[in-house]
Amino acid sequence: MNRKNQWKLSIGLVVVAAVVVMLYASRNDGDQGKTPEGHDHAAMTSTANDERSPVQLGAERAARIGVAYSTVERKPLVLTVRTVATVNYDETRLTKVNPKIEGWVERLYVDFTGAPVRRGQPLLDLYSPLLVSAQEELILARRLVDDTIAEPDTRAAVRARDLLGSARRRLEYWDIPVDQIERIERSGIPQKTLTLKAPASGIVIEKNVVAGTRIAPGMDLYMIADLSRVWIEGEVFEKDLSLVREGQAASVMIDAYPGEEFTGVVTYVYPTVSLEARTGRIRIELANPDLKLRPGMYANIGLESPAREEALVVPRSAVHATGEHAYVFVRGADDVLSAREVTTGLVSGKEIEILRGVEEGEQVVSSANFLIDAESSMGSAIQAMPGMEMEQPAARKGAE
After folding, report:
1. Do 290 and 388 fall within a single domain?
2. What is the pLDDT of residues 209-221, one digit of tens each?
């Protein structure tokens, strides 16, 4: 160990010993808050914590301890909001199948959850005494119209046509397809069962019926989900909600497909915030023609938002935070590093915005600044002690 390092080690030990002595004396002295020499210990502690002495650091020593410098830049600040999400159903593409008439299920055509269906595809055959009666009324009205076709303007013909229209509408209101109604009229024979068909295309995600089930009006038999478009719903921290807006481009990464990126837009920002998690929900819609995206999958969302058109930025590693204060070490003439308190703003990746404290073009320490901070703090603590004075950087430069 050379003499210079031995001198620094000795000074450090002296500082530690002096602080211990002052703490012990201030605790036991009758005049609380005073050291044996009569100095205000609280003021000395504040000076040591909040003030930092300049440090002179030559190029050779800076390279040896890994100090690097960065220039304060003024440029657009783009923030990326990242969060986790899940793939959900598009709620506008969900369809429930529930009959409007009482009856019994004679036969199931779609008999398991997860089955794909197409619009108009048969779901089940339904037997209902009311349906049989309604068919008989339809057939009777059809015959009355046929009997009065030769005299279409008579009162009987008008009433017959009204009865036929009423019988048709009654079956239509019970969701009986028009083609089945026309078939009954042509055949003149009532059918024991009528077929309920799928009102939409998609995947059966709920099935609450089996063959022989007695069903009542309003009973949910199936739920069909159209998965050609899905929702990606995520939670954004409250502090980031101002950076999210509808129409904003979004990138989506699905855990099931590593390396593949899906692109979409934010279609809705929910107007509420969770009291427990302090997050707000957002929704992204994605086309899903191949049905690769399945509800329940985990996803990661990335949203880029230009937060500032022009901002002063430095590397995040350049800022040394100490409780309520933040410092950077600015490189001045003759490689003198001076601690300067700054006010920080938004954080973007590895960069942080500086609102006050530095100017564009200045150089700041961006790595190993904790070593500089330690030496600066030690120099400040020594200078705050009675009878202890450290040579200034200019004097040390000549010594080196």
Report:
1. no
2. 999 999 999 899 9
Chain centroid to CA 8: how far? Answer: 51
Could you give the CA distance from residue 236 to residue 84 in angstroms, rounded to a whole number? 9
DSSP-derived secondary structure for 334-394: GGEEEEEE-EEEEEETTEEEEEES--TT-EEEEESHHHHHHHHHHHHHHHHSTT--PPPHH
Q: Is residue 51 part of a domain?
A: yes
Distance CA 195, CA 199 (A): 12
User: pLDDT digits over 221-272, tens only?
Assistant: 999 999 999 999 999 999 888 889 899 999 999 989 998 999 999 999 999 9
Q: Is residue 67 part of a domain?
A: no
How many domains would you assign to the chain? Answer: 3
- pLDDT reading at 44 higher than 80: no
Residue 350, number of CB atoms within 10 A of its CB: 9
Domain boundary among the residues 304, 321, 349 is at 304
Is the domain of 220 the same as that of 267? no
